[in-house]
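In response to the reviewer comment on reproducibility (Comment 2.3), we provide here a single inverse folding case reported in full, input and output, so that an independent group could reproduce the run without further information from us. The structure tokens appear first.
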């Protein structure tokens, strides 16, 4: 023990940044009866020749230890404040005696400024004398801890900034989508007015299309996109002259050729690669007059070569057009229109979609009657 004290005195006099200390206590649980610590610690704690351990305890803010627990082992951080340490002093000393080594981080109040010290200590037992000795050094790690705290705060600020940026982007994306929906809705209404169709036709067709899309296994998002895209199927008619669009009688072959051009006109108008809505609306505008047997226009696509959105829109557009009164025809009944869809199965329309359509007639009827669905 004497040799250890001498060595620690020499270490202190060498001017090392480490603060050496020696403490001794008996196994009867009484307070430390011998203590030595480098003069730096006494200066920091404002302690003269009195009880250094007491001065340390009075300056102690918290003590942190790291424990290895569990299998596979996990490292946990245990922090105790001054009040807790007052009650745990005996237990901590007993743990040190059993473990033989101690590693901890102390936060001290040094003249009103917090400082952090890492403690490396080794405990030796002298059973014949009933003594325990703790040989250790304290390393000032205040700068490292402060840098770590600054880094932690910077990370928190970065996370907060990132979260705020995410909220801002989401808000602006919502506004952009709302503006986009408003534009396409107005386009669809303008096209319907030119073709002497009603807003209720667009509403019903949208709902029919969404219902059929869900029945075909399309997800909620894609079905909702189709709901908004379907009313744009005839937007190309904005480019058709009134002389043809509003002609009361039958169109000539030349006039019908011009009328068929509304599919490509609509597709060109809706050309927008960066938007799911415009992409689907473009497909619907271009292909809603294609037929399952390949006899449709403008390209003569057949079967599965016709985009699914176009095949769905074709059924829903024809069905609602049949049930709506037009200047050149009376409105068909719901049952008559459903029968016509069935009759065109595999000819005009995708047979599987027709089966799904007819299998959902009760829900379709509620839409037809203007009820929520």
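Designed residues, in position order:
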């Amino acid at each position: 023990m004497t040799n250890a004290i001498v060595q620690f005195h020499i270490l202190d006099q060498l001017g090392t940044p480490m603060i050496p200390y020696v403490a001794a206590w008996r196994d009867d649980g009484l307070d430390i009866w011998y203590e030595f610590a480098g003069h730096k610690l006494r200066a920091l704690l404002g302690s003269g020749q009195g009880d250094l351990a007491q001065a340390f305890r009075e300056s102690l803010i918290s003590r942190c230890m790291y424990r290895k627990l569990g299998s596979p082992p996990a490292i946990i951080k245990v922090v105790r404040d001054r009040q807790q340490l007052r009650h745990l002093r005996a237990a901590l000393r007993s743990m040190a005696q059993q473990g033989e080594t101690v590693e901890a981080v102390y936060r001290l109040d040094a003249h009103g400024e917090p400082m952090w010290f890492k403690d490396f200590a080794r405990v030796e037992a002298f059973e014949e004398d009933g003594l325990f000795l703790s040989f250790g050094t304290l390393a000032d790690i205040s700068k490292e801890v402060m840098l770590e705290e600054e880094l932690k705060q910077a990370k928190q600020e970065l996370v907060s900034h990132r979260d705020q940026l995410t909220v801002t982007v989401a808000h602006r994306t919502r506004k952009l989508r709302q503006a986009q929906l408003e534009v396409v809705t107005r386009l669809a209404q303008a096209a319907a007015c030119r073709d002497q169709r009603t807003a209720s036709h667009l509403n019903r067709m949208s709902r029919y299309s969404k219902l059929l899309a869900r029945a075909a296994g399309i997800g909620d998002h894609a079905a909702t996109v189709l709901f908004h895209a379907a009313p744009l199927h005839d937007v190309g008619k904005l480019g058709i002259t009134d002389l043809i669009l509003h002609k009361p009688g039958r169109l000539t072959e030349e006039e019908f050729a011009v009328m068929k051009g509304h599919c490509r006109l609509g597709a060109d108008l809706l050309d927008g690669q960066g938007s799911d809505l415009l992409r689907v609306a473009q497909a619907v505008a271009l292909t809603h007059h294609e037929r399952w047997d390949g006899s449709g226009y403008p390209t003569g696509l057949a079967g599965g070569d016709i985009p699914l959105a176009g095949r769905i829109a074709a059924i829903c557009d024809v069905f609602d057009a049949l049930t709506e009164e037009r200047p050149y025809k009376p409105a068909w009944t719901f049952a008559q229109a459903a029968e016509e869809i069935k009759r065109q199965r595999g000819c005009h329309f995708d047979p599987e979609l027709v089966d799904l359509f007819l299998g959902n007639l009760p829900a379709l009827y509620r839409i037809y009657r203007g009820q929520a669905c």
